Amino acid sequence: MAGISSLGVGSGIFSADLVDQLVNAERQPAELRLNRREGEAQAKISAFGALRSALEAMKSPLEALAEPEGLKALSATSSNESTAAVSVDSAVASRGSYSVNVTQLAQAQSLASGVFADSDSTTVGEGTMTFTVNGVSTDITVDSSNNTLQGLADSINDANAGLSAGVVDTGSGFRLVLSADDTGLQNAIQVSVTDADGNNADMAGLSQFAFDGAASNLAETVAAKDALLEVNGIAVSRPTNSIEGVVAGVTFDVAAIGSTNISVERDADAVAERVREFVDKYNELEKVIGKYAGFNSVSGSGGMLTGDSTIRNMERDIRAGLTTIPAGLETSSVRSLADLGIKTDPATGKLEFDDAIFKEKLEADPAAVTAIFAGQSGGEGISDKISQSIESYVGSDGLFSTRTEGLNKTLDQIRDQRDRLDIRMQSYRERLVSQFTAADSLISQLNSTGNYVSQQLAAIAPQPSSRNS
């Protein structure tokens, strides 16, 4: 009897579709369980990622407040900025007022040669020119390759000797012009020559470019000058018009002769803004915690991480930092964030910031306010304390990394279980096909046998006789 090549051919009962239905029915409970576990693990990884981002966002404002300079923002103003503008480095400067009287601006020296008929064909001599600027000397060799005005200018510019050179067309001839790169007497230009004609001081050959005290064969068109000013009546000179180092952390940028009054004051608004940034980042963290670990008492439902011990401990550690009283402030009138107008809303867990109170306390006792955030005498302020707590959770070996690694291992296990399920379902399918094929063959044989018996019975059954009429 011919074999059955497809399920159901012999019996019409067993089919590939029936096998698929049975296999799917067997697979579904295990697959749903794996899907649920995988979804939960991925959701928790995502939640820990969001919490990590919120915690790391707090680090920047905390780092700014962990340094005394972070609470020492200063602003500076000039009553006459056309005479002198002012900038301030809060890390170095202190409060103060300064009267500034500018009597002279710094200038860069310029020198000019005599007049030549052209710039690129008339020879100017050969030998060596030595340029000295601010104590640094640079030699330039002049020969047949560069012994014109333009050749000299190009060689000087290529030498990086602290000055630049150019050729000016006056309309009645050409002049070599030398200009110091920087202002001030210390950057005045000296030019000495070793002239091929043997005379280093006359007005022939390279000697006509000498300007070194022994010979002044160039014309000084702009004199080198230092900036001169008086700060609170004290005479000051600098080689540039950017006056640094007279008052620590304060720079005067003088632009014209005249007087101005400079005021350096604490910028309470800037300090308050730094504190507000910290408050805002903390509140963003609370929002993320509420999303993933909060509990809705009305609906009776919680987030993916509700009740998670890691999250509970993180909240506890950070809130402990918020209520810290730094060492040395136990008896101070300003000793905690609450005294600075930073309080926790018990309904939401978020911080509320009253910047008016903060600025009042900052003005009254800046040292205590600084100590609250940055600590004092080696003691730890709240910024460092909270930063350390954050690092214990988001650091490379922190608790969030440990939890995330565990969840990723769970996903690996789920993938392994899916592979084993696929193997088991394939084996189950093969077993069903084998059983159904055998049953289909048996039914086909029974059907064939039944048909044969029916045919034999029909053959031996008496036939009705015919009568001749």
From TrEMBL:
Domain Flagellar hook-associated protein 2 N-terminal: 11-109
Domain of life: Bacteria
Localization per record: Secreted; Bacterial flagellum
InterPro entries in UniProt: FliD (IPR040026), FliD_C (IPR010809), FliD_N (IPR003481)
Domain called Flagellar hook-associated protein 2 C-terminal: residue spans: 224-448
Quaternary structure (record): Homopentamer.
PANTHER family cross-referenced by the UniProt entry: FLAGELLAR CAP/ASSEMBLY PROTEIN FLID, FLAGELLAR HOOK-ASSOCIATED PROTEIN 2
Family recorded in the similarity comment: Belongs to the FliD family.
Summary of the function given for this chain in its UniProt record: Required for morphogenesis and for the elongation of the flagellar filament by facilitating polymerization of the flagellin monomers at the tip of growing filament. Forms a capping structure, which prevents flagellin subunits (transported through the central channel of the flagellum) from leaking out without polymerization at the distal end.
Protein name listed in UniProt: Flagellar hook-associated protein 2
Organism listed in the record: Marinobacter salinisoli
Gene from which the chain derives: fliD
